[in-house]
Each structure stands twice: as C-alpha cells, then as structure tokens.
Amino acid sequence: MKPHCCSALFFIFVGMMTITGVSGCASLKSVSDTLVSPAASQRSLSLDRQWVRSTLDKEFLLFRRTHRMAPVFFGDLVIQGNAIDGVVAFDRKTGSQAWRLSIENGVEGGAQLVDGRLYFGASDGQFYAVNAENGSVLWTFPVRAETLAPPTVDGGVVYFQSGADLVFALNASTGKQLWLYNRQTTAQLSIRSTTRPTVDQNLIYAGFSDGFLVALSKQTGALQWEKKLSRNIRFNDVDSTPIIDGKTLYVSSYDGSLYALNKESGEILWELSEGGYTPVTLGRDVLYYSTTGGAVHALDKASGRKVWSIAVSRGIATQPSLMGSYLVFGESEGALVVADARTGSLLTRFEPGRGILAAPLTVESSNEVFFVSNNANLYAMKLQFHRKADRLPWQTQGH
C-alpha cells in the first residue's frame, strides 16, 4: 500500500460551526423568472433544512475521519456511507431509517448504483456488492487496501482503483477478478485520494500518485498510453476523476494544474496552472473547477480562459453540482453554498457545522439538495424563496 504521509491534509479542513435552519415554504419558479423578476428583490433565496440524521450507529469520540461519499438515490431511499462504521439508507421524504450495514472503518470513497446493486470499496480492505433495497451483502472481494474513490460499472464489469495504486476489473454479478493493473509507483509522498476510473468506448482512464495519467484496454487492462502530467517536487498525484467531453479529457493534479487533453493520444490541448483533486463539472460551454488553492472557477471549455471565479470563504470547495442555473458546492471548513452558475454571484449558504468534503447531490425537479457533513450527518435541504417581510431577523442568518 502506498505511504500516505499527508493524510492530515484532509483533517485540517474542518472547524466548529453552529447548525442553523429555518422552516416555511414558497414555490420556486424557474431560475430565469426569479432572477430577473422585479418581485425577486422582495424575496430571499434560502436553503431550508427538511431533516438531518446522523449516519453513525453509535457515538464516535476518537480522532476525526474524512466523510467523502456523496449520497446515492435508490427509489425512495437515499443511501449514505460514513468513514467510521458503515452504510445506512433513509427514506428521502421523512428521514426514517430503512436499513443499516455495519462495516469496520466505514465507507469513505463512494459508491455506484446499477440495477439495484450498490457497489463500493470499504476501509476494511474489502470490495462490496450490496442489495440496495435491504442492505444485504451479495458478494465481497478482498482488496487488502482501502478504497478512496467510487467504482465505475460498465457492461457488466466493475472497475475501481485501490489506495495501493492498483486498478481492478471484476465481474459485476459474481465478483470474480477479470484483470488487474499494477502501477508500481515509486512516489514517497502522496495525497490520500485516488481516481475513479473513467470508461470511454474501449479505454479506461486513471491517474496515479506518480503524476501519470494512463489509458488502459477495457478488455485486458493492458497499457495503451501514458502521459506524465505533474512534475512537482512535493505532490505529483493525479487523483481527480478524468471527465470526457467529446474528444477532450479533463483531469487535474493535486499540486499542479488542470489539463485538457486529446483523449485518444494524451496530447495536452491547454493547461491551467492551479491544482485540484475533484472532478470538473461540465456545463454547456464552460466547465466548473474547484482548486486546492481555495477557488471555484468557471472556465471556457475550448481555451481554459476564466469566465468568473469565486474565492472560497473557508477551506477548499467540493466538486460543484449544477442545478439548473444554480451551482452548489460545499466548503471543507464552512458552509453549503449556492451561486449563480452564469455569473458566479453568491446567492445563499447554510452552515452545517465543521464543513463539507463530499460533493452534494442535487435534484433540479424538486429543488432538493442532499449532503453529508464532516460530522457524518446527512442533510436533506430544499432551495426555495421566502418573502423578506415574512422572516424575522434571526431567521436570515446563515442564508
């Protein structure tokens, strides 16, 4: 398993905050209407808490853990893992618990749901396939290392990368190993994170702690090409999930740059000299990028030119999530933030306490946002407008 001398980097991002929330409801019209309507000046946009539940089976008083799994929907359930004791499913509307699966040291990296099965690697050294309806374990596979990113399921095969810089391909039905790619990196210092493998046609793309991005055969795991991206003295890691858009691949290194590459050859098309470890989020003509320097940028896809930027108030930002014309992201030491995706203007925020490291899950049709805080609490939020005259002064704080 590769050394993680810098594990503490993810634990210094969290701080003490108070929990705030308001009640009340107002219908949310289309974004284009609400932002330009004269009546909008008489209303305030708010993130209202619908319910909050601890994902822990019992109180945990030891050192802080890193909760980076984004919520997953299955029918009327929202499924959330923590990095302490397992995975739990709640009713999306009421927050009542449906099932719980106890796992030693929990699930940190994230999961993918396919055909009623939840696939994830856990911090007990096992990879799991679980029935999403009731939490029963269908099969496990011994990884013998932690898994720090979600898997990718494609064509009946599940692909994932372990913390030891290994990429596995397993039969999604049985858990039988199909192939293994061993990078055998020599990095002495690395960030405690890994890539989620990206499948595109016949290739798998993954980044590694030695600063390389590689393209592998989907069928055999054989190396097709590799590209050295990061050459920093400190951290070379290419840990962000590669994102494909047409013929272009976007990926970043933690301490280096964001790169746009030709997905077939690995040729660098443009580079932005600001590091990151979360995937970019694609818009129509722009992409949204959270940097390790504490910024969120909107960038022109073709050139990398900055369209607008947001300076994160506390810590660094999660991967942004698009919800119509809204951009939603968490601050590692602060709040859940909503901005105008077209201009970067900050619209509202909600303080959950101790910050957020996992990307929020948004539902545009119902204006809902689900996220897990650094306290391992799962929040169900609703984005809606309130008339300013109907709210008392203390109800506006934190929004």
Protein described:
- The structure is a single chain.
- The chain has 399 residues and is mostly beta strands.
- It has one domain (7-395): Methylamine Dehydrogenase, Chain H (7 Propeller).
- The protein is 2% helix and 42% strand.
- It is built from 1 helix and 32 strands.
- The chain has one helix spanning 31-36, and strands at residues 43-54, 72-74, 77-82, 86-91, 97-102, 111-114, 117-121, 126-131, 137-142, 152-154, 157-161, 166-171, 177-182, 198-200, 203-207, 212-217, 223-228, 243-245, 248-252, 258-262, 268-272, 281-282, 286-290, 295-300, 306-311, 321-323, 326-330, 336-340, 346-350, 361-363, 368-372, 377-387.
- The strands form 8 sheets. The protein has a 4-stranded antiparallel β-sheet with strand order 1-32-31-30, with no helix packed on it. A 4-stranded antiparallel β-sheet has the order 2-3-4-5, with no helix packed on it.
- Strand 31 and strand 32 form a beta hairpin.
- The termini are far apart.
- Mean pLDDT is 85; it is low at 1-38.
Present the secondary structure layout.
Layout lengths: L30 H6 L6 E12 L17 E3 L2 E6 L3 E6 L5 E6 L8 E4 L2 E5 L4 E6 L5 E6 L9 E3 L2 E5 L4 E6 L5 E6 L15 E3 L2 E5 L4 E6 L5 E6 L14 E3 L2 E5 L5 E5 L5 E5 L8 E2 L3 E5 L4 E6 L5 E6 L9 E3 L2 E5 L5 E5 L5 E5 L10 E3 L4 E5 L4 E11 L12
Antiparallel strand pairs: 1-32, 2-3, 3-4, 4-5, 6-7, 7-8, 8-9, 10-11, 11-12, 12-13, 14-15, 15-16, 16-17, 18-19, 19-20, 20-21, 22-23, 23-24, 24-25, 26-27, 27-28, 28-29, 30-31, 31-32
